[in-house]
Amino acid sequence: MNKTFIVLKHEFLLKVRSRAFIIMTFIGPLLMGAVIILPAYFSAMNSGATRQIALVDSTGQLANSMLNAAKDTATDFLSKEASTKITLTNALPGPGTIDSLSKLVESKALNGYMVVPANAISDSVSTAQIKLHNPSDFAAVSFLKDAYTNAVRDAKLRGRGIDPSMVSNVESGVHVETVKLQAGTEHNDNGEGGMIMAFVTVFILYFTLVLYGTIIMNSVIEEKSSRVVELTASSVRPFQLLVGKVLGVASAALIQVGVWAILLILLTTVGLSAASALLGPDVLPSISPFMFLYFILFFVLGFLIYATLYAAIGSTAESASDVQQISFPIVMLLVIPFILLQGVIQNPSSTKSVVLSLIPFFSPILMLGRIFTETPPWWQIALAVVLMIGTFFGCLWVAARIYRVGILMYGKKFKLSEIAKWVRYS
Amino acid sequence: MSDSVLILDTVTKTYGRKVAVDAISFAVSGGSIFGLLGPNGAGKTSTIRMITGITMPDRGTISLFGESQRQDHQNKIGYMPEERGLYRKLTVRNQLEYLGALKGMDSNALKKSIDYWLDRFQIRSWEKKKTSDLSKGMQQKVQFILTLLHDPALLVLDEPLSGLDPVNAELINEVILELRDQGKTIILSTHRMEQVEQLCDEIALMNEGKIVLAGKVRELKTRSGRMLISLRFSGDATFLERYGESRVKILEHTPNEMLLELGTSEKPGELLQRVAEYLDIQKWEIVEPPIKELFLEAIAQNTKPAAALEA
Question: pTM score, two decimals?
Answer without folding.
Answer: 0.72
